[in-house]
C-alpha cells in the first residue's frame, strides 16, 4: 500500500464524506491541533516509560483523541454516519482524574506557575498549551459547523487535566513549582 496519494498536491485534502477542502480550512486546522496534541501526549508516554501509573490514562486520552478527530473531520450533516462512538462522559472522566490527582497532592493550586520544573512536568505543560490551541480552533469551527458539545468540554477539561498532571509530577518529585503570581479570583473569595 502506498502512503502517498498525490491528491493533496494542489492544496486540498479530503474529509469524511468525500468532500475536499483547503488544507488551511478551519476543520483541518482544528484537526491538526488535535493531532499535534495526540503526538505530544505520545511523547509524554514515551518519557514516562512502561509501567508508569499514568500510562493507562494517557493511552485512553490518545484513543479518545482519535475518535474526536474522526468526528471533527466529519461535517455535522454526516456525523450520524460516523462509525466511531463518541463517549458522552469525557468531561466527567477528566474531572474524575483531576480530582484523583489533586487528592494526592500536598498543596492546592493557588498560583499561576511557570511551565517547567521537571522534563515530565514541562511535557505536560506543552501538551496543555497544545490542548488550549486545539480548543480555540474547535470554537472557530463551531461558528461554521456545530462541534458536539462533549468534544468542546473534553478538550477544555483535558487541558485542566494536563495542568494537574504537571503539578502532580512536581509534587511527586518534591520539586517546588516556580510561582508567578497568585490567582486573583481566589484572593477575592
UniProtKB/TrEMBL annotation:
It comes from the Bacteria. GO terms for molecular function: ATP binding; corrinoid adenosyltransferase activity. Its EC number is 2.5.1.17. One of its GO terms (biological process) is cobalamin biosynthetic process. It holds the Pfam family Cob_adeno_trans. It is an enzyme of class 2 (transferase). Belongs to the Cob(I)alamin adenosyltransferase family. NCBIfam families: PduO_Nterm. Residues 3-167 form the Cobalamin adenosyltransferase-like domain. This is Corrinoid adenosyltransferase. Keywords: ATP-binding, Cobalamin biosynthesis, Nucleotide-binding, Transferase. It catalyses: 2 cob(II)yrinate a,c diamide + reduced [electron-transfer flavoprotein] + 2 ATP = 2 adenosylcob(III)yrinate a,c-diamide + 2 triphosphate + oxidized [electron-transfer flavoprotein] + 3 H(+); 2 cob(II)alamin + reduced [electron-transfer flavoprotein] + 2 ATP = 2 adenosylcob(III)alamin + 2 triphosphate + oxidized [electron-transfer flavoprotein] + 3 H(+). InterPro entries: CblAdoTrfase-like (IPR016030), CblAdoTrfase-like_sf (IPR036451), PduO-typ (IPR029499). Pathway: Cofactor biosynthesis; adenosylcobalamin biosynthesis; adenosylcobalamin from cob(II)yrinate a,c-diamide: step 2/7.
Amino acid at each position: 500500500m502506498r502512503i502517498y496519494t498525490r491528491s493533496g498536491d494542489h492544496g486540498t485534502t479530503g474529509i469524511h464524506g468525500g468532500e475536499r477542502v483547503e488544507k488551511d480550512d478551519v476543520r483541518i486546522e482544528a484537526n491538526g491541533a488535535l493531532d499535534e496534541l495526540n503526538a505530544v501526549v505520545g511523547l509524554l508516554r514515551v518519557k514516562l516509560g512502561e509501567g508508569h501509573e499514568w500510562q493507562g490514562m494517557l493511552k485512553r486520552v490518545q484513543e479518545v483523541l482519535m475518535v474526536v478527530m474522526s468526528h471533527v473531520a466529519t461535517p455535522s450533516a454526516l456525523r450520524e454516519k460516523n462509525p466511531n462512538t463518541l463517549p458522552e462522559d469525557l468531561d466527567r472522566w477528566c474531572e474524575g482524574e483531576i480530582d484523583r490527582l489533586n487528592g494526592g497532592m500536598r498543596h492546592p493550586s493557588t498560583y499561576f506557575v511557570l511551565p517547567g520544573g521537571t522534563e515530565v512536568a514541562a511535557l505536560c505543560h506543552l501538551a496543555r498549551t497544545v490542548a488550549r490551541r486545539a480548543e480555540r480552533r474547535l470554537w472557530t469551527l463551531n461558528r461554521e459547523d456545530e462541534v458536539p458539545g462533549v468534544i468542546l468540554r473534553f478538550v477544555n477539561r483535558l487541558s485542566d487535566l494536563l495542568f494537574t498532571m504537571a503539578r502532580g509530577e512536581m509534587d511527586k518529585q518534591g520539586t517546588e513549582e516556580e510561582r508567578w503570581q497568585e490567582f486573583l479570583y481566589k484572593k477575592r473569595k
